[in-house]
């Protein structure tokens, strides 16, 4: 994890915003998270992601995909589907997922 935002990508592209509150059961979570990062990073249409968690426990991950096909490949991956089910049964007290098309994107990096 870095302390930098994801770069601005060339629009249009999709963003999937996953907001969650984790449960107290973290068994297997770090390993599953590492594996999910491996899988999604191998998707040619995956552009990147960024995550943050508040001290109160709200987590937000924003993942960026080139198109609907790339997002569908991610959503339908069998290991990802198993992790989603485990999330509902063990790892999350609540979550929401929002998917949107990004029409405009720009960024700024201070030099020096």
UniProtKB/TrEMBL annotation:
Keyword Oxidoreductase listed: yes
Protein species of origin: Streptomyces subrutilus
Domain ABM positions: 15-86
Residues spanning the signal sequence: none
Source superkingdom: Bacteria
Family matches, as PANTHER family: ABM DOMAIN-CONTAINING PROTEIN, BLL5343 PROTEIN
A molecular-function term among this protein's GO annotations: monooxygenase activity
Keyword presence, Oxidoreductase: yes
Assigned keywords, A-Z: Monooxygenase, Oxidoreductase
Pfam family, one: ABM
The protein's name in its UniProt record: Antibiotic biosynthesis monooxygenase
